[in-house]
Amino acid sequence: MAKTPVTFSCTSCGASFNKWSGRCDGCGEWNTIEQDKGISAGPPSKTLGAKRGSAMVLTDLTTKESPPPRSQSGIAELDRVLGGGLVAASAILVGGDPGIGKSTLLLQAAAHFARSGLKTIYVSGEEASAQVRMRAQRLGLTDAPVKLAAETNLRDILTTLEAERPDLAIIDSIQTMWADNVESAPGSVSQVRASAHELTNFAKRTGVSVILVGHVTKDGQIAGPRVVEHMVDTVLYFEGERGHQFRILRAVKNRFGPADEIGVFEMTGQGLAEVTNPSAHFLSERGEPAAGSVVFAGIEGTRPVLCELQALVAPSPHSQARRTVVGWDGGRLAMILAVLEARCGIPFAGLDVYLNVAGGMKISEPAADLAVAAALLSAREDVALPAETVVFGEISLSGALRPATQTENRLKEAQKLGFTSAIAPAGGKPVGKNGITLNTMSDLTGFVGEIFGAG
Known about the structure:
Shape: globular
Mean pLDDT: 89
Number of domains: 3
Helix content: 25-40%
CATH class of the largest domain: Alpha Beta
Low-confidence stretches: none
Number of strands: 23
CATH topology of the largest domain: Rossmann fold
Radius of gyration: 29 Å
CATH architecture of the largest domain: 3-Layer(aba) Sandwich
Strand order of the largest sheet: 8-7-9-10-6-11-12-13-14
Largest sheet: 9 strands, mixed
Number of helices: 11
């Protein structure tokens, strides 16, 4: 078994030697040469061994560097989700259900970036170049100076990008790429990890922004190893229901801007159109006040968004009542039903409960608890809330109401859309007058008693 070589170095200048001597030949100092202990113990084939690398340059937290420059796409909703625009040398991962509009959105974005002066290359691994050109013709983008290619060989793609040096490269999709040094089929975990690593490393090394399209699983998560989401700078999810024309681009990770920011688009015959006032569109189909209908004033990222919550409570013909939720967390619905029964004495046993967020929205913030409770009680008691009222607030397991963040922004958005009153938890930060009557509640029992006359 081969022995680990013994090395010596000077503690004054760092020069390395194969044997000890009293005087350093590099700096001339005496008695400064010592045996290296190595940076890792064990055989060199299994550990780093005794060989040392280069020392890092350490700095402090003070900096005079300006924020990274951004390129505007001209699509305001996309720029908002990216944090203000496209950052050079950034790696972005976009995921979404099949047919939701990922390729359409990125082709429109590529055309806008190219028209603004960025050299853009669109590489399609799923469609032929003729198919992409047909989509561009349908969207009216044929005049955009976008370079197009259909290729899946990662080596050929990187060679082309090295030679062309574009400002932006779009890869559609990462699951179709294959590296010839990895012995597995395209789309496998090894291939996806290797391809994502090479493309992300290329972006950081050359300053080219790279946008990757990722497939999703049946659960709606981006397929492949989770490490891909850790590699990239930004992860965007393209959400929406097939039956609705609205599409939501949501940032779940962003190193250059706020996470949970959303951009709203509308699918039209000419592609995806921006929705500059999502609240008005989500409430556009809302008619006269009806039992089970409540308007929730929510916050998505930095944007206040109003949407309609619809609930239906009906006697169950089955031995086990159904609980169906669309656009919200089913576990949180079960918690709200349990609090209503345990703290307010309002049972839902033997009743089917259906909850829907209108317009295809998906809500995750806990401030929707009070609006959900109001919709459930309204449907159960067959009592409609006033049409000009918005509701928001978090419910604790004790039945107490906890204040929500950014109350003033929620009220401003509600006032802008013509709402005149709001129901919210007490104890929050004082807010200015927004032309809205604020009715505050301290607990769920008081809310039920005052709004629905029970408790």
